[in-house]
Amino acid sequence: MSGPFPPGFLWGTATSAHQIEGNNTNSDWWAFEHSAHPLIREPSGDAADSYHRWGEDMDLLAAAGFTDYRFSIEWARIEPAPGEFSAAHIDYYRRMVAGALARGLRPLVTLHHFTHPLWFAERGGWVGDAAVDLFVRYVEAAAPILAEGVQHVCTINEPNIVSLFAAIREQRLPSVDLRDITPDPGTTDALIEAHHAATVALKARNSTLDVGWSIACLNVVADAGADDAATDYARTRQTIFTEAAQGDDWVGVQAYTRTRIGLVDGRPVVVKPGSDVERTLTGWEYYPRAVGDAIREVRRTAVDVPIIVTENGIATADDLRRIDYTKGALASVHDAMQDGADVRGYFHWSLLDNYEWGSYGPTFGLVSVDRLTFARFPKPSLAWLGALAPAAHHDPKEDSSDGP
Ligand code: BGC
Predict the structure, then answer these.
(1) Best of 70, 158, 215, 284 to mutate for ligand 1, by most ligand atoms within 8 A of CB?
(2) For the chain, what is the domain count?
(3) Binning pLDDT at 50, 70 and 90, where does residue 329 land?
(4) Which atom of ligand 1 is nearest to the CA of 354?
(5) Residue 2 included in any domain
(6) Which of 80, 277, 306, 338 fits a 20 to 30 Å CA distance from 145?
(7) Measured between alpha carbons, how far is 137 from 403 in angstroms, rounded to an integer?
(8) Above pLDDT 90, what percent of the chain?
(9) Which ligand 1 atom sits nearest the alpha carbon of residue 356?
(10) Ligand 1 contact via 161 beta carbon (within 6 Å)
(11) CATH code (residue 197)
(12) Residue 174's pLDDT band (boundaries 50, 70, 90)?
């Protein structure tokens, strides 16, 4: 790495409820996992059983030196039937927030990470009647979870990917590669409206919250002659969502690799990385600078909006490659900051090997999980990355400075 990050910089790992909790049986994803779609190689089942073991997860994180934890709360558990809210699950997630704080971890809470209650999906998802109002009603009901000790809230994780999933599912497309799909325009509009409405609702309750959303940054690069095609490709899949972050308290950058757009017979295509290129377990090009490139691009689109790297990581069975990738990634973050980017934090994806939306194959974790006993086994990368934590955030002298 090429330099330290400033005191107060958020230093954490990220997870999402459906991918680690297990048995999220009331969600649309659970139903999808049992629908024999080619995207699904196996169902999520017990996942990492973090529903019962979140304390153990947070212990590992704090012991390694991290100061922050990004996790999501599950709409399908909080509102299992329309308008019926589970006080027990609201309390459950309140205890997670309190548990993080008790361990010295600042929680960044995501309200929506890809999954919906099944009833919401069945009434049309984001293009169903009053979808935005229903989301805001859920956000209002979940507000007690954010009432004490939560500073950063992410309304919707990767809305651009939610819109692609909607296209796959609403239009019953058989493709298993999201890069070939066009987002669902109605879903895109509704998600942007939902983000803005949820932000207003959250701020009305607590104006000091820092609210944003996180974008899947595709790092679209054009082959010769394909500039216009690349711009068009990025527009509906990313740019429109980044523009919607203008005026927010922060915007989340999530980047893993880059996407090449070329032309075949004058027609735009995604050029998949070939065997001459190192590829990760997701088939993506090994490209550590992805996150730095993404920061630079987001900064040009959502001008003056502080950036948090809310996800960055690599699916690999070789933990040394993970460390190498992350070194390169952090150097690229640091370089972007040297060039003036206002970056406030870095969250590595992911704390645990988890359910990668259809399969347990791609392992992104700093910690592996025995799929039968749920025992956690930290990989060397956990201690390595935790030890790079910037100076402690709770020094009152630092807190009173004018720093970022
Ligand atoms: C998502 C995660 C996912 C990760 C790796 C992001 O698209 O937010 O849920 O596991 O990238 O694919």
Answers:
(1) 158
(2) 1
(3) very high
(4) 10
(5) no
(6) 306
(7) 36
(8) 89
(9) 10
(10) yes
(11) 3.20.20.80
(12) low
Has residue 386 got a pLDDT over 80?
A: yes
For residue 403, being part of any structural domain is answered with no
Q: What is the pLDDT of residue 180?
A: 79
Please compute the mean of the pLDDT values over residues 209-225 and round it to a whole number.
98
The range of the structural domain enclosing residue 276 comes to 10-398
> Which atom of ligand 1 is nearest the CA belonging to 157?
8
Whole-prediction pTM: 0.95
Whether 5 is covered by a domain: the verdict is: no
